[in-house]
Every structure is written in structure tokens, then in C-alpha cells.
Amino acid sequence: MNVHNELGHGFLEAVYGDAFMIEFQEQGIPFSRERKFEIEYKSQILTHSYNADFVVFDSIILELKAASAIVDEHIAQTLNYVKASNLRLGLLVNFGREKLQYKRLIY
Fold first, then answer.
1. How far, in Å, CA of 35 to CA of 84, rounded?
2. Domain that holds residue 19
């Protein structure tokens, strides 16, 4: 909420990510940014991987968006990240509207 209250809506996702880093550091919240996760298929690691925007407390995928709305594709993407990371919880946060949108996703 602090990030949204300070910056509002309309910036790129990367700007919000930078602000989250500052918030996490100031509040002593453990996080990693752009953590790489490999995708496994039939016991083989695929060539392509993905980077989660943030992993917080080593247990929550935090996916940031700056879109006009949270759509099914954003939800599916975040759920796939949660699944591939072997974590159980994802938080999808959208800064693209005047009012902050967020969705808690459990796998």
C-alpha cells in the first residue's frame, strides 16, 4: 500500500519493483528480486526458465503488473510461477488503475 500511496498508478512495472525493494529493505522483509526458476518437463529441465518479480519470505511469489486490469492471463501466469517454484502462495498486484488491485492465489 505504501508504494501505491506514494507513486499512484501509471508507471512501468520496473518502477514499482524498485520501490518495493526500498520498502522491503526499510521494513526488514527478506526478499529476492528476479529469482530464476527452471521449468521441468518429463524429468528434464527446459531451455527456457522464468524470473519471478519477487519471492518474499522464501515462500510467496509476488508478481507486479501495470495493466488496465487483472485478466485471466495474469492469474494463469502467476499460478504457473507458483507451481513451478514449488511454493504455495502467489500475490498478484496491479498498479495500472487508480485503485490498487490485488489477488491472492493459492496452488
1. 12
2. 2-106
Strand order in the sheet with 101-106: 31-41, 44-56, 60-65, 89-94, 101-106
Domain count, the chain: 1
CATH number at residue 50: 3.90.320.10
SS (H, E, C) 24-91: HHHHCCCEEEEEEEEEEECCEEEEEEEEEEEEECCCEEEEEECCCCCCHHHHHHHHHHHHHHCCCEEE
HSE of 3, CA atoms in CB hemisphere, 13 A: 26
- Residues with Cβ within 8 Å of residue 86, at least 6 apart in sequence: none
Q: For residue 107, what is the enclosing H or E element?
A: none
Is the pTM for the entire model greater than 0.70?
Answer: yes
**Residue that the C-alpha cell 508507471 belongs to:** 11
User: In this predicted model, what pLDDT tens digit does every residue of 70-106 receive, in sequence order?
Assistant: 999 999 999 999 998 999 999 999 999 999 999 999 9
